[in-house]
Amino acid sequence: MTADPKAGRPSLAQVAALSGVSVKTASRALGGEPRVAADTRSRVREAADQLGYRLNGVARELRRGASTSTLVGLLIGDLANPFYSRLAGGLERELRMRGLQLITASTDEDPEWERRLADALLERRVRGLVIASTATEHAHFAAEHRHGIPFVFVDRPPVDLAADTVLLDNRHGARLAGAHLGTLGHRRIGVVGDLSRLSTHRDRLDGFAEAMRAAGVENWADYLVENAHDVVAAERAVRDLLDRTPAPTALFTMNNRITLGALRALRGHPAPPALVGFDEVDLGDILGVSVVAHDPEDMGRQAARLLLDRIDGHRGPARQVVIPTRLLARGSGERPPTSAGTQAS
Amino acid sequence: MTADPKAGRPSLAQVAALSGVSVKTASRALGGEPRVAADTRSRVREAADQLGYRLNGVARELRRGASTSTLVGLLIGDLANPFYSRLAGGLERELRMRGLQLITASTDEDPEWERRLADALLERRVRGLVIASTATEHAHFAAEHRHGIPFVFVDRPPVDLAADTVLLDNRHGARLAGAHLGTLGHRRIGVVGDLSRLSTHRDRLDGFAEAMRAAGVENWADYLVENAHDVVAAERAVRDLLDRTPAPTALFTMNNRITLGALRALRGHPAPPALVGFDEVDLGDILGVSVVAHDPEDMGRQAARLLLDRIDGHRGPARQVVIPTRLLARGSGERPPTSAGTQAS
DNA sequence: ATGAAAGCGCTAACAT
DNA sequence: ATGTTAGCGCTTTCAT
Q: Is strand C in 7 Å reach of the CB of A135?
C-alpha cells in the first residue's frame, strides 16, 4: 500500500509504472505542463500520492543546469548577533519578493568552517552567495565568481577579489564617537574592540584615532583593549580598564556585544564613565545608551539589490555601497569627565 | 587560458582531458583516493586549478544517493528573534561536532512560505529537517517522514504527524507567572499574547488561566489582548490596557517581543504596573525585568540529539523532550498592586 | 595505477 | 496527447 521505509524514496519511474504511462508523461502531469489529458493527470497524481512521491530536486537541477535554483546563501559570523540577524531580515524580505529563498549559515568567525560552508553551498549550485567573511583572503572564490555566480560581500570587504560590496561607514562613525567624547573633555577613554584581524575593527580604530589626534589626545592607545570577542570577555576587559589608576573617564565599545559587556560591568557603578557604543543595542533607547547607529536592514536590502542585478545579467565592474553611520546621544555618552571618581592628572 | 564566463563551469571531463587522464582517474586524484600516482595527482590538480574547476555536488549527490548530504535544515519564524537564534546556535554547535552543517531559513510565520521552504530543502535532499512550524497541519510531511528523513519539531508540536518533538513547558511557566502576580495581590492583570493560533500561545494562556482560577480571579480575560505579533503592536496594546479604567495593576507579556513593547510603553511611567514576561530579554537582568526563563540553546541541543539519533538509524516511536521553565524575580514582577495609580474597585 | 561502461532521476529534443 | 532517446556530471562496478 504505502512505501517501504527501507526502499528509499520512490522515483518518477515508479509513479509512471503504477499509473501506466511513460516517465515523461508522468513528469508532465506532475509538473503542470499543458499537453496532458485531464484523467491521465489525475491518475498520475493519485499514483504519486499513493507512493509518497517527491520530486528529486537534485536530479532536476543536474538536468536543467544550475540557473534554476531559487536558493541564495548567506554566511554570517553569528546568528545570535542582532546586527547580522537584522541584516539577514532585510536581505530575506527583498529576495522573497523575487521568489528567491534565503538560507543562512553561521561561520562562528572560523575561516576554515566558513570555507567549508561556502563549498557546500556552491557545490549545490546556489543562485548567489552573500557573505560577511571572517577570512583574510578570497582568491579561492575567483574561479566561481568568474563563472558567473554572483557574490556580495557585506560588512567586510573581499580581499584579492573584485566583487560587489556593502559596507558600513565605520571610520566616520568611530570618528564621531571619538570627537563627541573629546569635545566633552574626556582624555582617558577606554576603547574595547573585537578581533583585531577584522577590517571593521581596524577601520573603526582608524576613525577613532583620527578624532583623538584632532582632539590632541596623545597616548590614547594606552587604554585600548582588543580581541574581546564575546560579552563575557568584554565585561572582563571593561572591569580591568576601570580598575586602572587613573581610571578612564569614558568608554568607547566598538560593537554591540562589547557594549552589552560594558553595561554589565557598569551595573551599579556609583559614578559610571561616559559610554558610547558602536552598533545599536536592544533597549538602548530605554536604557539611555549613546551609540553610533546605522541600518542593518538597509544593508541587507542593498546587498539584495546588488545580487539581483547580477542575477538579472548585469555585467559591470564590482560596485560598492556604503551605509551611513550617525551618533545617537541618549545620555550615557554625555556624562562629563568629572563623573569618574579618580580624576587624577 | 582561464575559463570563459559564458561557458559555464568546467566539468570533471574537461579537467581529465586537459591533464590527459580518464575521468575516473581525475575523480580519484581530486577526491584524495589512494590508488593514484603522485605526479598524476599533481597534474590533475594543476589542470583543475587552471580551469577553475569545482566539483558539482548536485551530480555527486545524485550518483551517491541522498544519504551523503551534510546539510540539515532549520525553519524558524524569524531570524531576528533571539529565542530562535539562540536555539539555532545550540543546534548548530551540536551538529557541527558531527560534521553536519546547519542552514536556516525564515518562514515569517507564513504557512505557505514555510511549505515552499520545506519543499525546497527536502527536494535538495537535506539530511534532516528541524522545524518551528507555523502551519496547522503537517500531513504533507508524512510520506517523506516514512521514507526515513528525520524531522524534529521544536517549540511547536506537529499536527497529524508522529515526529520527534522538543517543547517548552509553556503551561507551567505561565502558571508560575500568574501565581506570582496573584500571590502579590494583583487582580487586574493585563495579558498580552501573540497570534492566537499558535500552540505556544494557547498553552501559556491555559497555564495562566489555571493560576487565575486558583487565585480566585474571575473575569481575568477582560484584560486579555491577543495577536500582538510584533513589538509595535505590543506597545500599542499595552498603552491601550493602561488607559482603561480601572487600569491593570500588573502585566503578563507572553513572549520576548511583547515584553519589549511593554517596556517601551512603560517608559517614564510614574507608577508602572508590575511586569512579568515570558522568555528572557536582552539586558533583562540589568533592567530588572522579571521573566519566565528557559534555555533556548538547550532546546537546540536536544533537537540535535534527537536528530542525530535518527540519522544514526534509531527506529523507535516519536519521542518528546520538554524543556523546563522557571520564574526569575528581578524586581519588575514584584511591584505590589498599589503602585498602579488608579486603585479603584 | 588506470580506464570503460553503466546509471543515479530527471527533463529537453525529437518523434508519433 | 503521449512516448523514445539521450544526457546533465559524477561515482560505482568491473576490467586491465
A: no
Chain B positions touching A92 (Cβ under 8 A) are 79, 106, 108
Chain B residues with CB-CB distance to A295 below 8 A? none
Domain ranges of chain A: 5-55, 71-167+296-323, 170-294+328-334
Give residue-wise pLDDT tens across range A161-220: 999 999 999 999 999 999 999 999 999 999 999 999 999 999 999 999 999 999 999 999
* Shortest distance, CA B277 to any CA of chain A (angstroms): 15
Among A139, A138, A220, smallest CA distance to A178 is for A220
CB spacing of B260 vs A281 below 8 angstroms: no
Closest CA relative to residue A194, chosen from A135, A257, A131? A257
Q: What is the mean pLDDT of residues A311-324?
A: 95
**Chain B residues within 8 A of A80 when measuring between CB atoms:** 82, 85-86, 88-89
Q: Which nucleotide is closest to the Cα of A60 by its C1'?
A: C10
| pLDDT for the residue numbered A235 | 98
Whether a cis peptide bond, with omega within 30° of 0, leads into B10 is: no
**Burial class, B215, CB count within 10 angstroms (exposed 0-12 / middle 13-18 / buried 19+):** middle
3-state class (DSSP) for residue B150: coil
Contact between B74 and B130 (Cβ < 8 Å): yes
The Å distance, CA of A1 to C1' of C15, is 36
- Residue A33's H or E segment, with its range, is none
**For A315, nearest residue in chain B (alpha carbons):** B5
**Low-confidence residues in chain B, pLDDT < 70:** 1-7, 66, 339-345
- Provide the mean pLDDT of chain A: 92
Q: How far is A52 from chain B (nearest CA, A)?
A: 5
**What is the value of pTM for the model shown?**
0.92
Record: contact A146-B3, CB cut-off 8 A? yes
Q: What is the mean pLDDT of residues A127-144?
A: 94
Give strand letter and number of the nucleotide nearest A62 (CA to C1'): D8
Looking at the partner chain, which of B2, B53, B146 has a beta carbon nearest the beta carbon of A52? B146
Which CATH number is A5-55's, of 1.10.260.40, 3.50.50.60, 3.40.50.300, 3.30.565.10?
1.10.260.40
> Can you tell me the distance from the alpha carbon of B127 to that of B289, in angstroms, rounded to the nearest whole number?
40
Position A5 scores a pLDDT of: 45
The CATH superfamily label for domain B170-294+328-334 reads Response regulator (3.40.50.2300)
Q: From the centroid of its chain, how far is CA B162? A: 19
CA distances from A292 to A155, A177, B219, B276 (A): 15, 7, 47, 31
CATH assignment, A71-167+296-323: 3.40.50.2300
Beta-carbon contacts below 8 Å between A and B:
182
Which chain D positions have some atom within 7 A of a protein CB? 1-5, 7-13
A63: chain B residues, CB-CB within 8 Å: none
Helix, strand, or coil (residue B195) = coil
Subunit contact B61:A58, Cβ cutoff 8 A: yes
Q: What is the pLDDT of residues A24-78, one digit of tens each?
A: 999 999 988 888 888 999 999 999 999 888 888 889 888 987 677 899 999 999 9
Q: How far is CA B328 from CA A53, B221, B276, B298, B340, in A?
A: 49, 24, 9, 18, 22
